Amino acid sequence: MNDKTLKGEPVERVVELSLPSKLGYERVAMDAASSLANRMGFHPDRVEALKTAIGEAVTNAIEHGNQHDEAMKVIVLLTAREGELIVNVEDEGKKILDHSMIAREPDIAPKYQPGHVDRGGWGIWLIRELMDEVQITTAPGGGNLVRMVIHLEK
Amino acid sequence: MLEDELTVSTRQREGVAIVDLMGDVTTFAEEKINQAYREVTTQGARQVLLNFRQNDSINSAGIAILIGIVTEVNRNQQKLAFSGLSQHFQKIFRMVGLAQYADIYQDEEEALKHLNSDPET
Amino acid sequence: MELSFPSELGYEVVARDAVAAFARCVGIDKNRIEDIKTALSEACINAIEHGNQFDANLRVMVTCKHNGDHLTVEVRDQGMKEYTAGGKPLTIEEKLAGLGPLRGMGLMLITELSDGAEFVPVSQGNCFRLTFSVLQPAICHHS
Q1: What is the rounded distance in angstroms from the CA atom of residue A60 to the CA atom of residue A64?
Q2: How close does chain B come to A121, measured CA to CA in Å?
């Protein structure tokens, strides 16, 4: 197989997905990622962690970044490298996430109080718990970008 | 870099040589399946059961490997059967004509019951 | 949805699983999804092997659209050489008689499993369009 480009650079094995911003379609990203991770040799527990993390990231992009605007796309890049899988989830940034809120650990107590409506806010926390590396930035195109890395431990 | 997930193993049960296929049967499967077939044939198998796992898939390259096995089975005057295929792949096997050359059973138990009661073998 | 991947065997499985998830999401019957998975895998393998000649630098693009009673899937490659089907595929009897290679059943499977399979003209590479009639979809549920 060709492992180098004409310029001698290594070929990046990237799967790119473009999804409409509609809840439910995060399953497409989850199944594509788990399919790739399985074939890369990840342990089933790690594949489950990856699915949960990517599901949260795409749901966030649909709900928050793209504000459920179905015409807006969520772009998912899965980059398979020797020993790791890199996942980028990018939205079109109808709303830019407040990075100071993201950095904070959610407070569990109020969420169980009667009448508390917002039980969300766990997505980013969960992603950080499950993935080996996580960066949340604003993409060059102006959208929110979640970059996650999961290492292959054989 | 993507791994081939197929595991092929052989065993004997009630006079039938069983080849267990765990994983997808694609172009990468050729050597493993042919080797398993050669192994049971060398051991004198007269009846060979290829036992698939329900959720796995088989593509046209995998079907080509199986047609190759049919050729060898005919040459060696053995009997070939399949078990464990999903309804979808039973349909595919009928579609490509494999069902004319090998009986298809729902599972291993059903295959063994029929193979052992077949007067031809 | 759209998806693209490098021309390397194994990646057709990722495309297959993504399209299967899409089909489930729009409520397509599970038996029909099995047909879609097999046909799509074969179309992707053709794009990798024939269209892109196993060049991992070239990509295969899959577009999937659902409109009511049909699912349309297009598989495009970046091949410089036009790829079209050869003559009538050999039957299993002909293959067993040694009249041709054992391979080459992909297009036959695609034709049998889909309701329409054709090459459509594009400016570069090959574009193979598959259509599947599907049952009335359910609503896409969040899960």
Answers
A1: 5
A2: 35
Query: Which pLDDT tens digit goes with each residue over A22-80?
Result: 999 999 999 999 999 999 999 999 999 999 999 999 999 999 999 999 999 999 999 99
State which CATH number among 3.40.50.970, 3.40.50.10490, 3.30.565.10, 2.30.40.10 fits the domain covering C2-133. 3.30.565.10
CB contacts < 8 Å between A and C, how many? 82
Question: Which contiguous run of DSSP H or E holds residue C111?
Answer: helix C106-113
CA distance A23 to A124: 17
- Look up the domain containing A59 and give its range: 13-151
Q: What is the ipTM of this complex?
A: 0.88
Report pLDDT digits (tens) over B89-105: 999 999 999 999 999 99
Residue window 19-38, chain A: list those with CB within 8 Å of chain B: 36, 38
Interface with chain C: mutation pick from A22, A35, A63, A78, highest number of C CBs within 10 Å:
A35
